[in-house]
């Protein structure tokens, strides 16, 4: 109303932290009105920038660490670095090479104390090849702090003395065992790093506090190396993106694991909650053979990864699952996979589908809820090369079980008229029975 009927009056609103002020201002001319509106606009922008800067919070710390080229110290810290990347730098990229390139741009100097512990033979000997977890390393290398031992009873005296300052309020309740709390874990990591540096020949008494450790020659060969996979001992170099095996100085003995092949992986979710990953593996092995599944990995209580020994087996499993769900008769309930498909909510797809679901801006706690929120309605996603020939491939897999004399004789005695009159449902039943007989044969052979 003011704008329409009173050309010399202007309505403005100023928003404060807790209150807002509304004014109707008289202006002599259009130029005065334009100046007033420009001032109001600038004020709104200034307040918005202040609010954004106040909300940024810890991002200022990240920017400061990056700009000052500080040495970042962590323990088995690739997941910590990934978390910082996703929350303060950019969404996580799809490849490890892109990830390390971005990390190295912002943090060109990172040290992983787990790398130091496994690279130094003297430290390994002192730790007696025990666990290199943060709490174990801290207990052994800094027992005076970890356990409150006095110096005269130490079996191992630290090379570097670490002074602990606790305020008066907390001095009476000082707890040196609060591991897995972010602040105390950082403290333990710093203590372990100091002891490891001492074993590498770095004397902190000869260096000023302001000296840049990122240029220390004894640290450079261990810098920017992170464990990409602790199970396999894979190490990635943040400077080049190259991957390598366990450090040559390490004498850790590891069980060999097969390389992860994404084309061999099937994603399962929505299965009955009573099923554990080992039970899911048993169900599949009873169907496709005892060596068909290499491993199962639990994402959460609603989803698992199943890695097959061959890509063909992953395809066979998806085709067989779809066949069983389409038949949905009494015979299908006798199949070993019926336990996995119980309830009718089990979904299966390739690893690519997992990436698509995780890339969605929608965020749910459980993976099954996440997939539903994204809009997944189908039960089985066949592999691209199998979608057109899924039925033929499934029949080929099932009919391979018909190698007994009885099965051969049965096929010979069936006449043309019987074949023509068979319904699709009956053909599914025959396929499932044959598959079930094959499973029983495999099971008996294995037991013998």
UniProtKB/TrEMBL annotation:
Coiled coil regions, renumbered to chain: none
GO molecular function: 3'-5'-RNA exonuclease activity; RNA binding
InterPro entries referenced in this protein's UniProt entry, alphabetically: CAF1_poly(A)_ribonucleases (IPR051181), RNase_CAF1 (IPR006941), RNaseH-like_sf (IPR012337), RNaseH_sf (IPR036397)
Annotated Pfam families: CAF1 (PF04857)
Cofactor: a divalent metal cation
Biased composition (Basic and acidic residues): 385-400
Disordered, as annotated region: 385-421
Family that this chain belongs to: Belongs to the CAF1 family.
Record protein name field: Uncharacterized protein
Organism: Gossypium lobatum
